[in-house]
């Protein structure tokens, strides 16, 4: 069964996320991709990949993603945060990060850790 990977990025990080996806296109094309609305739209339009989207993060999408994590439906999460700007829905973001920790779901919040998560998924896919 294909892994489900959460892909979310704050606005100033969306280009970095798209570049990561393009670099590892073969992996991501074999995954179920779960995103919030704006991130999903950007990924779909630039890569052509099939996306499952929730609401926008600020409208509860982060919490919808967290619910899927709590339900055991997610294998890994990449959420590229922009630490230089406050987000109006910060409590929802913190809830999503907390749920990843509670349910032991690998979580990357920057490109360095995203590369580690991607490498792990690629290793699992070939074994």
From TrEMBL:
Binding residues annotated for substrate, in chain numbering: 10, 14, 56-57, 89
Catalytic activity: dihydroxyacetone phosphate = methylglyoxal + phosphate
GO terms under cellular component: cytosol
This protein's record includes keyword Lyase: yes
InterPro entries listed in its UniProt record: Methylgl_synth, MGS-like_dom, MGS-like_dom_sf
PROSITE patterns reported in the protein's UniProt record: MGS
UniProt GO BP: methylglyoxal biosynthetic process
Segments forming domain MGS-like: 1-127
Signal peptide (UniProt feature, chain positions): none
EC number in record: 4.2.3.3
The family this protein is said to belong to: Belongs to the methylglyoxal synthase family.
Protein name as it appears in the record: Methylglyoxal synthase
Species assigned in the record: Desertifilum tharense IPPAS B-1220
């Amino acid at each position: 069964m294909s892994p489900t990977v959460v892909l979310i990025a704050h606005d100033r990080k969306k280009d970095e996320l798209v570049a990561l996806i393009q670099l590892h296109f073969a992996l991501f094309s074999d995954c179920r991709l779960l995103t919030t609305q704006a991130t999903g739209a950007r990924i779909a339009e630039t890569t052509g990949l099939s996306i499952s989207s929730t609401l926008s993060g600020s409208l509860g999408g982060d919490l919808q993603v967290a619910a899927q994590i709590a339900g055991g439906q997610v294998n890994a999460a990449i959420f590229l945060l922009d630490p230089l700007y406050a987000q109006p829905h910060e409590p929802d973001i913190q809830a999503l990060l907390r749920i990843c920790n509670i349910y032991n779901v690998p979580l990357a919040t920057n490109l360095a850790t995203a590369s580690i998560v991607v490498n792990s998924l690629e290793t699992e896919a070939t074994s």
